[in-house]
Amino acid sequence: MATVPTVALKERIEFGTDAWVRELETHLRKAELPETTRFRHSVLLQDAPPHLSEASDSSIGYAFDIVDGRVTVNSVICAANDVAAILDYNRAQLLATTVLGTNHHAAERRLRDARRLAQSALPIPFDAPNLDEHSRSVLRDAHHHMALRTIPNPDVVQRARGLGLAQNLAELDDRGYTVLRDAFSDEFADELREEAHRNHDAAPPDVGFRATMLLKRGHHWEEAVIHPWVLALADYMLGRGCLIYQSDTIIKGPGLDTHPGLHADYGASRVAEPFPEYCVEATAVWAIDDFDAPAGPTVIVPGSFRNRRQVPPGMTREDGVLIEMPKGSIAFWHGASWHGAMPREREGKRTSLHNAYCRFFMRPLERYDDIDQAIVDRNPPIFSTLCGLDDAFGKSGYHGADFERMRYSAEARYGSTAF
Q: How far apart are CA 192 and CA 194, in angstroms?
């Protein structure tokens, strides 16, 4: 039986909408705030998706006031002199969907990383210096409550462009791969490396160079799989509602040749040739350590996805180009692209994370529909989607399909990039 998220499908809402504001107000009004509490937070969100804004400058806004312990929240287009912060809608959403959890160190690092990706200070209410500790706790809880219900901007292209990824979309269309530079911090890279080596060191000696099923193996991997830049590219290539196909780490030591030839990633799913004209699987590879030439980086044949078939006899890695990228970068490619990896030529080990995504109607290599309830409930809704919990597949009973999920998939336009 599939895991059922505690936050129901009907409770999911888009950031900054009237419904989102009403939910924030309802939650805050349930809290008991000191009668002395006086606080105001107002935000103007610019470059909002067109379906949310009627303003000529594509902006929306919201504000909440706490006066003598009473809460009022409004959807407003704030006057310039009444705005605490002016933010880009899609970049502000990075913070709105950051679930903090109970680990203080992890929460602080997540906030730093969200601000870094957004290239903005992104003020948050519970960090305001004039708040008492109780009110700060109430606002932090409100942030957590909303992050568990906030879905990404469904206008995929507008979201990607708002996050500064327009060039990456163009590169995917042209050559079938792109590199996201400065995609994650050195601090997070070091945490991922430590977790990866712990998993690999605990494995029997004959299991090979991979550790898999990572979404069941700790919060670091949960956080990585929902990286907002990667998800924007995945939604662009695969349509909304895409799933995690496989999540694994590779540790490459001296002389190890993990992928001696070229291949397309469609092989594991036995996708028939000619491949579909649209992408059915795409892969993100995280450079937890540097991917330079001696480290044994990925090699890829630009534009090869257009051939719509597996690699023909006679082609070798020398026919491709190296994807060299520094620690903290993520390479993302169309799964029909011909690629492989070079052997490592230096001492030491290179650690990488491989998250592959697929269209929502495909069978992934890894199964997460039975993932632990607590894991789902500590992540934003997109995590549940990636695990296959939101669609109707595999959830039919004796009296028909799961029509709630079937309707949700249709209304959310699963499989589509266009809005």
A: 5
- Report the distance separating Cα 87 and Cα 265, nearest Å: 39
Distances in whole angstroms, Cα of residue 307 to Cα of each of 236, 298, 337: 20, 20, 9
DSSP structural state of residue 291:
B
Name the range with the highest mean pLDDT among 35-44, 109-118, 163-172: 163-172
d(CA 259, CA 132): 57
pTM over 0.70: yes
Report the pLDDT value the prediction gives residue 81, as an integer from 0 to 100: 52
- Asked if 49 and 153 touch (Cβ cutoff 8 Å), the reply is yes
Query: In whole angstroms, what is the distance from residue 121 CA to residue 114 CA?
Result: 9
Spatial distance between the Cα atoms of 283 and 58, rounded to a whole number of angstroms = 33
End-to-end CA separation in angstroms for the chain: 33
Torsion on CA atoms 93, 249, 294, 290, rounded to nearest 10: 30
- List, in sequence order, every residue forming a beta bridge with 341; answer none if it has no partner: 298
With CA atoms as reference, report the closest residue to 322 among 349, 345, 347: 345
> Could you tell me if 57 and 46 are in contact, meaning their C-beta atoms sit under 8 angstroms apart?
yes
Tokens coding 174: 């042209």
Backbone angles phi, psi at 322, to 5 degrees: -80, 140
Task: Tally the residues of the chain.
Answer: 419
Q: What is the DSSP letter of 82?
A: G
